[in-house]
Amino acid sequence: MRTWLHQHFVLLTAVLCLAGYVYAYTEGRAGTPIRSDAFSYYVYLPSFLLYHDLTLQAVADDCCGGEFPSWTGFMRWPRTHRWVNVHPIGEAILIAPFFVIAHVLTRWTNLSPDGFTPYYQHAAGLAGLFYTVFGIWCLRRLLLRHFTPGVTDATLATLLLGTSLFHYATFDSTWSHAFSFALFSLLLDLADRWTPDRGALAIGIISGFIVLVRHTNVIIPIAVVGTLAISSNRSGRLRLHPEGVRLALTAAVIATIVVLPQVFLYESATHRWFVNSYGSDRFTFTSPHVAGVLVSPRRGLFFWAPVLLFGVAGLLMTPRSLGRWVPAATAILAIEIYLIASWNEWQFGASYGHRGFVDVYPLLVIGLASCYTRIAPRPVIRSAVATLVTVLCALSMFQMLQYWHGVLPMIDITWRQYTSIFLQPW
Amino acid sequence: MVRQRRVGGWLLLTMAVAGALWYLRDPAWLADQTTGLHPWQPAANGTRYRWSGRHASFFVTSDATRIVVPVATTFDTPADRPMMVTFSVDDGRAARVLLTNASWTAVALDMPPRGSRRVRRIDVRTNVTRDDNHGVMIGEVAVSR
Known about the structure:
Radius of gyration of chain B: 21 Å
Helix content of chain A: 55-70%
Oligomer: heterodimer
CATH architecture of the largest domain in chain B: Sandwich
């Protein structure tokens, strides 16, 4: 049984996510997949591929009478009067293969080929699900090189069921987080098995896509590729690794080429090469809400996914073969926490758990597996931790369903609210 | 044995895809699909209508030989320009009318010969919209068979 589960782990993950997706959309709680932020991530596809329009105006005309509604995250650039999308094009590119299939099916069924009828909607939704499962597949490949199959499966099951990952693979699968999670997982896997004779092209492309999906995630490829460029000698002193430096330069050039279409898009809309597409939204670096994003009931990462504390603790217990990634992991986590906590809308709007951190879950997977490996030989502690993690996963899934059914508020939840609806069914 | 199972798997998958495509060519649920239409509202004369956006679509049964679509829009302010409304049937242009006042206009669309599907898609597009992305009011469609 255990062998069968191990052999079919990714398939089971896909089936479980698909079941969650079907439940979310047949119960009618989720609305349509292309909604809220997802609209602005997706809108490039109908605009470019159906209307052959780089300005986004044709979609605005067709869907919205010429002006995108205020909730969609577009602004007219003051000097050019052209649309600037708050979200970049990376996710749309990743959805494109699914979009093409949806368009062919739409023609086949004779639905309106406007980019928003049901096949397009679920192509985008299922794309997010696909990329989440792909990310899990990448992480599994990475973990199996360093940990036992049992630890690997337990780690990934904990990640899927004990954090908001399942939610962002199903209910909110069209948000960018599933895509960033998959790209980071792939980058980590590629970087971990990188050899000087191959891998630079793939690492460069993936790095570029990470930036294209979410610009602030540029710190991820910098830290990961930087780790390959810097190595320590026997005395522990850091030194540049010539092959790694060559990789870093090659990857940087390739990543820049991948990002160029976005830069040209900004330039064509604003006549500027670099743009703050968020307009008046800003970072407040002098007053970050660190406690808010880590432990508060409103959006605390560890409040809503306490199993990740094992992941943080585990970063201190990584096996020697993964030890080189710990400084990068620490740097990425610290910078992500500071950036997210400094954003003026630090809750990131409606979200189950703190969605900003889904992108960096792959780092905590290494810690989680390291932690499980450390406790595996100690039967009493192992049983206690297994029981605790099982309870926390069950609680996370239950609370996620509370969120889906509207029992949990989507934003601004207080401790009093949380306790008043704790374990309250829908 | 392994090869036989693999071939069987591919065969099963091909049959499933072919079956799904056959079903999706003309599904029954298509008749109820609409896009770009607001909920029905009662009109002053006892009939009902629904607002379109700039682009709306709905389906009628393919045994119809002619349909009549009542449309109207508002002219509440002097700035409200005349509105061009374009109708198409299965992506082929069928009619175009210019609304210059607030009265209802019945637009007759002669339908092409019945094809292999059970429904036809009607698209309605307007060249301008009123406040809040409102295009035309579309009344109950009369179908002649």
